[in-house]
What does this fold into?
Amino acid sequence: MSYMSLAVLSLHWRNEGETRIDQFLNKCDLAINNIQRIKMRADGLKSDLNCEPPDLEEKFVKCMHQLEQFNVLITGFNISVKNLEERRLLEQNQEDHTSHVAETSPSPSPVHDNTPVMTTATAHLQPVNLMDVLSEPAPSKSSACFNQCPPQVVKPRKVPKEDQMLITFSSNSCSSESVPRNNEVTSKEVQCELLEEVKQLTIKSPAPSPLDFFKLPAQKVLDVDHVYPATITCIDEASFWVITDYIDEVFTLMSSVNEYYEHTHIDLTPEELRCLVYCCYYDVESKTYYRGMIFKIIEGDEVGAEVFLVDTGEIHTTTFANIQPLQPQFCRTPPYARCCHLAGIEFIDQQNKDLLDKQQLFLKDYIGRQCSIKVDDNSSESLGVYVILPSNVILNNLLVDEGLALSIDKPQPKKLTVKGPPELKPVSDSELDLTQCPEYEDPVEAVTGYSNRDEADICKHYKGGPSKTCFKGSRCTKKHILKHPDGWTLDRVGVVTKVRSVPLPAPGTWHKVLVTYVCHFDRVYVQFIKEKPREEIPSFGVILPPTTLEGLVRDMNSPAAKMAYKPLQLTPAPGELVAALYPPDGNWYRARVLTVTRADQNVEVFYIDYGNVMWVQEDAVRQLEARFLSLPAQAVRCVLAGVTKRSNDSKQWADAKQFLRSITEELVIDAHIMGREYDELIVELLDKDGYNVAEQLAAHGMVTLTEYSVIDDTNVTRKMVAA
It folds into this structure.
């Protein structure tokens, strides 16, 4: 071969090698992109697990199956790279061994080597393509760690020629079954010793358990001195049960329950029955299914239970064959039955059985009748009510007229003729003992009951002057403050009174709002429905202020937050922002103090995120932490556009407020912004069917409508607020 032809051939080989290397680099870039895509998809599985508890089971199984496929792909890639590294080490060892034999040969002349030559693994290894490994998700038999833990590689030990064995591979994977034990290159992952047992586990979708049950939401607290439409469902001696919601809603729920359980039946064992709390009870006589709550398990020849029907108030004893687990789609509405007792009366002789039977027979005539109830007392589970029949006759008075009950006159508070604080009551001279009166050194504390705490910290020798000190000079440890000539000092305790408000939208825009509270026949409080931002999960030990109302309520009612609440140092002042307990659900919310009564130690608070007002005990008010002030107040007051009062009758206002509450409260509706004032909006509300709420009030003769239009204030740059 000539010199020129050898140069051309070398150039051809070089170009061909560079071309193939470039192709391989492109495939590597593609592999890197595919691995990045798999990594992003695996990271996206975390967001799929942020779902409701009923859907978490299905999402978890899907995520685990997909993650198992990703593990197979990445494991195959890692095994292929490991095979290449092991082959390179074997070839390097073979080259070192050949050079060592050549150097120790006693003859300087070349001779034929008749000794057995070690066959390397390349004679039996098939070529490995990394792209094929990524494209074929075949399970790998390798013991490599899924987490790519750094292995402790033991270098191959050199052995004499006569002890060497051929290393053969029966498959493409470097499994432990295909490699001889005495010449195996071991790699032990210290961090993953438990992985072998985990591999034997198989992920299976668990079958739906019949014991899954859900809690029913709590009932709304009825307001005192309000009249509600009701239907009497059950009489139980002195107590009775009523449904205050619309009877059509109850009928729709009962129809859905019966339609579902007529085609679905789950066989429960006695052990599974003991785990249930809420259930669905089948009444054999009426052939109807009811929502119920298990009161007591009856042990005997046949296991049974006492079931309380939460929508009627009745109690039935049945066998476990008539009980089914309550499905979650029937747990979205609270119990409809409310326990009540007749207010203002007292039954005669509860020990007389004949009289009790007459009372029961008299009251049972009103089961299933439509009536109205006026709440007199809502402080206990049993509501004290006055039952108003359709003929405007009060059932409480009928029992008194029939001689079955006695009227109870409420004690009237006595008028005090003395001046001074209301907690002081007049006493006679014989009852007054001066020796039992407390002694005070401070006249201010004796008269007002207030002890100024900073008096002890102020130096009484300081008389003012440019030196700003007393005769003790730097040795004095007191505060050098010039007191008032009358001797008074001023204690100040800083409190939080300001929180940002939600920006009011521009007139003419449409928004989805949630009506949280109806405060008058023409005014409501709403929350604007916005797209919920994705909450950022902070690092461990980092506390971030909540950015949504759901996050705020969750953080304020966490066990750690409840334990950290501090009591107020002084009596809460009007306008102070506090954390107040909401008695109906037992949760803490942000609130603003309105009024305080020292006589009964009650505080009137306004919940700034919902708009409702309630009286709570003073020990149910705590200091509000600074991290709960970053979120603006969510409740916005709105006035219905064009709505004016029809008369000055307060009862008509109460009826209009009650009707407005029934069609808007706790519902998501559309709001058309007609105008905006300093802290409220003028809106036009449309219900879910598209009907104007104000026109519905006018159609029932409760309000009068006037003409209105959108008040554009885009060009208004300054407004004057008159205090």
